Amino acid sequence: MIEVTEVRAGYGDGPDILNGISLTAEPGRIVTILGPNGCGKSTLLKCIAGFVRPRAGHIRMSGEAVTDVPTYLKVRNHRVGFVPQTDNVFASMTVAENIMLGGRLMERRDRERRFDTLLGQYPSLASKKNRRASALSGGERQLLSLARALISEPSILLLDEPSAGLSPRMMHDVFEAIADVRRREGPSILMVEQNAFEALHVSDSAYVLSFGSVAIEGAASDLLADPAMRSLYLGGDKH
Amino acid sequence: MSDFIIHVTIMSGLYALLALSLNLQAGLGGLMNFGQIALFACGTYGAAIAFHFDFGAVSGFVLAVLAAALLGWAFASVGRNLQADYWGIVTLALAEVIRIIATNEDWLTGGAQGIGGIPPLYAGLDGQTRQLVILATVLLLVLAAGLFCRHLIGGRYGLSIKIMREEPQLAASLGYDTIALKRQLMAVSSVLAAVSGFLFAHYVSFVGPEQIDSSETFLIWAMIVVGGLGNNAGAIVGAFLLQFTFAFIPFVKDWIGLPSEYVAAGRLLLTGGGLIAFILFRQSGIVPERVGGRRYV
Ligand SMILES: Nc1ncnc2c1ncn2[C@@H]1O[C@H](COP(=O)(O)OP(=O)(O)OP(=O)(O)O)[C@@H](O)[C@H]1O
Ligand SMILES: [Mg+2]
Predict the structure, then answer these.
(1) Which residues of A touch B157 (CB under 8 A)?
(2) Which end of chain A has fewer CB atoms < 10 Å from its terminal CB, N or C?
(3) Which of A17, A52, A53, A213 to mutate to test the pocket of ligand 1 (most atoms within 8 A of CB)?
């Protein structure tokens, strides 16, 4: 469970990038955040993860106030998994090492079991498990980053554009994987996406940001049906 | 001549400890510490102040090590939100502040005159034997420090540090406490520098502020860059290589008939030139590094 209330945040002495954002992500639900480039989606995730300190407002995880808690404690105490938009793999380590790192706080046996399961789910990673991550394509890095977050069975999952740079086929697989995680493990999933149409299809609800504020919010199915949304963010009349 | 070689080897060994220490910070941790000489100063002044106030050498050692660990911790804490390059500038400034304090607080540090007459190590032994025993001590310490660093870098802790260095945000998102890791690394590596300073003070019997000039920090940097950043053997090789090269500049000078001023200039030229040449043409130095270790997760 993630609860964000009236959060304001920015970088350094700069202006507020987030102008009082509130949202909720419940366990077993996928919440998607949409919006144009530069509107503050990644900043919102970084705020929740603890990389950017909110200037005002509150953040709660599983009912506990965590507004000013540093990232590593959130990760340890609330099992937060984070897939950043950029710099998402350790380039000089192998694929297997990268995935294993995500499970470093787990029992060894659980970690290895999860590792095998994940490699089964992502054959493209399995075939390259002993390669350096620097030798992966952009899409493969994206997958690797997702696998590293999933190995620990997080109870809060923050995904910053998990489908960026993926082929349509791969994108479908990634969204299926995320939907599958929700079904089996039921974490609270907060996902930033540009592929709005595909993302909304697997989501329960969504928020559309504009200039650091929530412009539209609602059930994913309602947003998909909303003609204004269609023309504004979904790009024409697909389907 | 053999006395001279022994002396140069001892000095190389003391610099090797400093280089190993800086290599932990910069090579392993990516911490661009330009104030390394201040940590060495904790060692020299720890020895000198303990002697000056008659506390005895053991308290001097304890003082040196504690002061260095504390200063290293402080380095890591000051400006911990700064980017690596800005942090480097802060460490350079802090080292200068410490040198200026050492120059001006006469009552404590002997001021610009420094503190002389510090008793030599193994004072009971006669000249030649003493040199050899000091040589053996220093070489053993270098070996021990090298093994310690290798153990640290190759183990779980080293992997955490490498992960923090490569992607700090990603490291935090995996549950690593990056600030604590930096502080621990600085504190531990500072102790090595302090040991070097402590031995140096007792070896040359004199401690003064000109020994802790910032140009010395860059000499240590040149050693680890030449040897190969991130590599322990490289740090030791670099220290010996540069010290021996410097030691023979005066002979080369006589041989080609240059005036004496050129000795100091030659040192600077080699330090700067060596740094630039290796950064441009062989960034990995003489022996490169490998990151990894699924085994240790
Ligand atoms: N590290 C930073 N320092 C200063 N400003 C930043 C930083 N990161 C982002 N910004 C600014 O904050 C604003 C929001 O950036 P953010 O990355 O949150 O956008 P976004 O919605 O994720 O965009 P995109 O869809 O392109 O990923 C932008 O104007 C950006 O310039
Ligand atoms: Mg973004």
Answers:
(1) none
(2) C
(3) A17
Residue B164 lies in a domain: yes
Per residue of chain B (297 residues), what is the pLDDT tens digit?
A: 589 999 999 999 999 999 999 999 999 999 999 999 999 999 999 999 999 999 999 999 999 999 999 999 999 999 777 888 899 999 999 999 999 999 999 999 999 999 999 999 998 898 889 999 999 999 999 999 999 999 999 898 999 999 999 889 999 999 999 999 999 999 999 999 999 999 999 999 999 999 999 999 999 999 999 888 888 999 999 999 999 998 888 888 888 888 877 877 888 888 888 888 888 877 776 666 655 544 444
Residue from B170, B176, B183, B284 whose CB has the most chain A CBs within 10 Å, to mutate: B170
CA distance linking residue A122 with residue A144, whole number of Å: 9
Q: Which domain holds residue B62?
A: 2-213
Counting DSSP H helices and E strands in chain A, the numbers are: 10, 10
Nearest residue, CB atoms, A51 vs list B169, B174, B293: B169
Sign of CA dihedral B185, B190, B196, B202: negative
Measured CA to CA, the distance from residue B145 to residue B140 in angstroms comes to 8
Residue A160: nearest ligand to its CA?
2
Separation in Å, CA of B79 to nearest CA in chain A: 14
What is the number of domains present in chain B? 1
Residues of A in contact with B175 (CB under 8 A): 72, 75-76, 104-105
Q: How confident is the model at residue A187 (pLDDT cuts 50, 70, 90)?
A: very high
| Nearest bound ligand to the CA of residue A9 | 1
CA distances from B286 to B31, B154, B280 (A): 21, 19, 13
- In the three-class reduction of DSSP (H, G, I as helix; E, B as strand; rest coil), residue B193 is classed as helix
**A92 interaction partners in chain B (CB closer than 8 Å):** 166, 290-292
| B197, part of any domain | yes
Q: Residue B192's closest CA among B42, B26, B49, B81?
A: B42
Going by CA atoms, what residue is nearest to atom 22 of ligand 1? A42
Among A170-179, A201-210, B52-61, B170-179, whose mean pLDDT is lowest? A170-179
Measured on CA atoms in the order A8, A9, A10, A14, is the torsion positive or negative?
Answer: positive
Q: Answer yes or no: do A100 and B163 touch at CB < 8 A.
A: no
Residue B222 counted as domain residue: no
> For residue B221, is it within any domain?
no
Query: What is the pLDDT at residue B180?
Result: 95
B193, B36 contact by CB (below 8 A): yes
Among chain A residues, CA nearest to B164: A90
Ligand 1: nearest atom to the Cα of A212: 14
Ligand 1 site, residue A195, Cβ cutoff 6 A: no
Given a contact cutoff of 8 angstroms between Cβ atoms, the answer to whether B234 and B222 are in contact is no
Class for the domain spanning A2-233: alpha beta
- The alpha carbon of B145 and the centre of ligand 2 are apart by a number of angstroms equal to 45
